[in-house]
Amino acid sequence: MRKVLVAVSIILTLLSNATASTNWADLQRQAPDLDLQLIESASLSLHILSESSVTLQPKGTVVILPDYQQHAFSPRLLNTLRLHLPAAGWNVLVMPAPETSEQISPEQKLLQQKSQLAARWQLLNQQGNLQNPVIVIAQGETAALLNLLVAEALATRPAAIVNLGAYLTDQQQNNQLLKQVALTPLPLLDLITAVDHPHATATTQQRQLVARAQQNSLYRQRYLSEARQDQPMQQWLIKEILGWLQTNGF
């Protein structure tokens, strides 16, 4: 047990003193005018992509949290969000994709992932000049981690969350995630498509049942069985997100 705790401690120490990396350099070659902001503390340095609203009075801030190995220009909806949300009146910030080690147990990995996301979220709230309300659109495993943090002890919560195919790789952990997602104490739009991870698509009905059983009116789910993410589908998803935000008073 002591060896496990020492290993976790080493992982978290290395994590807390790391510079969060992403393929910003590759993206800047595609878009030289990319607006990157550096936010940093004594233990963490983070570049985030900023897109300002086209309106004089923004509706608030949307923070996009990509999944592992995804980025701001990802064709899996993220690039469409980045391009269209400012036109709809929102400031947009895109965090770098998270990092993790596969050479550890599922329990250690989950602890590492949550600690990393919590540290980044805290730094963003301290130095990111976020304009309220703050909406988070999170993808894949990152979405699942955010839901867990909100359910546990996230000091500064967003006003609302949009999940894009939320799941955890470990099946047992993913099954335990069901209640955390369905009972999130914030307005939550749970978007799932047939091209998402099988762990996300396999639990759609269970999430819905848990939310109904607990009468959680803040939870809304949309499952799209069409196995594609072409432009017409992505435009529909954008309208779904914007319509849901407006319905919830954002």
From TrEMBL:
Signal sequence coordinates: 1-20
Please give the superkingdom of this protein's source. Bacteria
Q: Sorted alphabetically, which keywords does the UniProt record give?
A: Signal
Q: What is this protein called?
A: DUF3530 family protein
| The organism of origin for this protein | Alishewanella longhuensis
